[in-house]
Every structure is written in structure tokens, then in C-alpha cells.
Amino acid sequence: MCRKCAAILFVKSTRVIIASLLLVSAVAEAAVVVHNSGVTTYSQNFGNGSSITVTGGEATFVSKINRSSGISIEGGIASFTNLIDRSATISIAGGDATFAGTVGRESEISVTGGIAIFTGTIERNPTFNLSGGITELATVGNDPIFNLSGNAQLNLTGTVGRNVSFDIRDAAQLTISAPNMFSSISELIAVGGSIDSNGYDFSVDETVVSGLTVFDLGGGSNAVDLGTISGGGQLIFTNYNQDTEIYFDAFGTFDPGTQLIFDGSSSLVFDTYITPVPEPAVATLVMLLASGGFVYVRRRQQKKK
Fold first, then answer.
1. Pick from 84, 80, 49: which is nearest to 62 by CA?
2. What is the dihedral of CA 71, 186, 212, 266, to 10 degrees?
3. How much is the pTM?
4. What was the pLDDT predicted at 31?
């Protein structure tokens, strides 16, 4: 082959390769909108900054979604089975979304409606802005921020790393569905809403009570450690039993006797914890036992004389 022909062939081949690479890149980073009523599986690799929107139908994404991508679920059913790389923006406003793979660090997850279930690990530094819908999380890494408002429901089924921050307000609900949930250095800002511990122990390092928050203890004899507690609001404990103890380290003007309330019962306040006053029947029994013991001792003393 002559040199000129070889040079022309090389240039054409190079153009074809470049065009192919550009096509692949375009496909990888193209916006995908799913709004049909069928079932679709997407297996292509989504590049950095990809955009995925699901408004209807049923879509399954089986390949990796690279960093800084945006995922919006507005309706239908969406399933993500592979890695969603770091700095992702995930928004669920409706429908049903399941995330089985890892969600990379520094991602932002917003749920305003629908159902969002994360069975994989969410890596460190995530931010959760939840104002509606139902969110279920299995494993969350270090330094997460949870903002719960509106009528959002958050169910934690696994472990959460250190440096946790919870802000609960309005009618939002936090449900604890596993023991030993928080590792260390966690903060609870209670402005409203409710917490359901399902009978598991609950421990945070710092609590700020600025509104009225209902704390359902699940009927167990669990211990609650609120850490350093401050603020001008109230925590109302329900579904407790006579063995329940609420530990705290009061700060400033916080008054445990008037700000930590057992619904339907008065309380006994000690230096570092508070417990409900025994029910009348229990108190009566205790008094009878005590008085019976006193009579028994008196009789023995009289017999000795």
C-alpha cells in the first residue's frame, strides 16, 4: 500500500474511533426519562453527571451510575441494583424506589413523597432532607445529617455511623428498628414530631428540646440516655413501664421535672435520671410489704423479750 493511501486510511480510522468514543460518551451521559407503562431494564454505564427521571412504568438499572448524577423518581417503580457513585442527588417525590447497591459519599437524598428503600450502604457525609413519604435505611456511614419535617417517616433498620445529627419537627416520625443504632457523638434536635424506639435502648450525646416531641418507648424496659440536654421544649414519653429510666445531664435552665414528662404519670427526679412514679396499685403493694416486714420484725423482737 502506498504511503498516501495508508495515511488516508489512518485518518479515516482515527475519525471513526473518535466518533465512536463520542457516541459512547454521549450515550453514557444522556438523560434518560422513563414514563411508559412497560417494564424496562437499563444496562448501559451512566457517566459522570447523568440524569435519570422516572415518572411511570417499571425501570431497573443494573449498571453503575457514575458520580454527580441526578436521579428523580416522580412515579412508577424504580430499582437500582449497582453502585451510585459519590455526590449523587437523589429525589423521590412519588412512586416506589429501591436502592440495593452502595450510594457513594457526599450524596444528597430528598424524599417528599412515595417510598424510598435503601438496602445497601450509604457512605459517609450524606444529607437527608425528608419532608414526606416513607424512607427506610439499612446502613449509613459517618457524618450523616437528617432533616425530618412535614409528615416524613424515617425507619432505621441497621447501624448509623458517628457524628450523627437529627433534626425532627412538625409531624415527622423517626422509628428505631434495631439495637445499638448510633455509634458515638450524635445530636438530637427535637422541635416536634415523634420518635418510636420499639423498646430498644436509645442513646445520644446531646439533645436540644425546642418544641413538643412525643417519644414512644415501645413498652420495653429500655433505658434512654439523652446526654447533655438543653432547650425550652418538652419530651413526652409514652408506652413506658415502671422500670424505665431516662438519663440526662441537664444544661443551663433545663428542668427535667417539667420538661421530661411521662404521659399519665408523675415522675421521680434524681440528679442524673428520671423515672415514672409507680402506679397506685404497685405503690400500695410496696407499702403493704414494707409494713408487713415491720410488723414481723416487731413480733420477733417481742418474742425475744
1. 80
2. 150
3. 0.82
4. 76
